[in-house]
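Let's practice the habit of predicting before peeking. Look at the sequence and jot down your guess about where helices and strands might fall. Then scroll down.
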Amino acid sequence: MRWAETLTSVAGIFQPVIDGKRFIKSISTNEIRQLEITPSEENFIQIGNYLFDKSVLEWAKISLLADATLKAEWLIVDEFGKLEMEDKGLEPVITFLIHDTELRKSTKLLIVIRDYLLNDFLKKFLLDKNDYEILLLE
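Done guessing? Here is the structure:
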C-alpha cells in the first residue's frame, strides 16, 4: 500500500486487515468495505476459518472492472487466493483482467499471490513465469 501511494496512476483493490478483520479498499475511490464477517451474518462464502461477505466481493469485482476502464499505469489486485483457485471470490474478473492487460499492454497488472499458490496460479492461467516479473516479499 505504501508503494502504491508513491504512484500517480494506480487503481485496483487492497485487502487490509483492520482491528483483526479483513476489508477491501478501492484504490481509486478510497471506499472501504468490511469483507470478513461473523458467523451470525448471512450471504457469506467460507474458506478455511474465514467467512467473507459475498456482496462485498461482488462490489470488489465491479470496482476492479470499473478501474480497468481508467487505463491507469498500474492495476493492483490484492489478492488472488484459494477462493479464486476454486473460481470463486474475485473470479472470473481476475481472469478477464489478465487477458485484458495481455491484449492492451497499456496497464501493468500487479496481482498479490501467496507463495504457496504461485505455481497453481501459473498453471491455472497457462503462464510461463519467465515471461513475468515475480517478486517474493518477506
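How did you do? The chain has one domain: 2-131.
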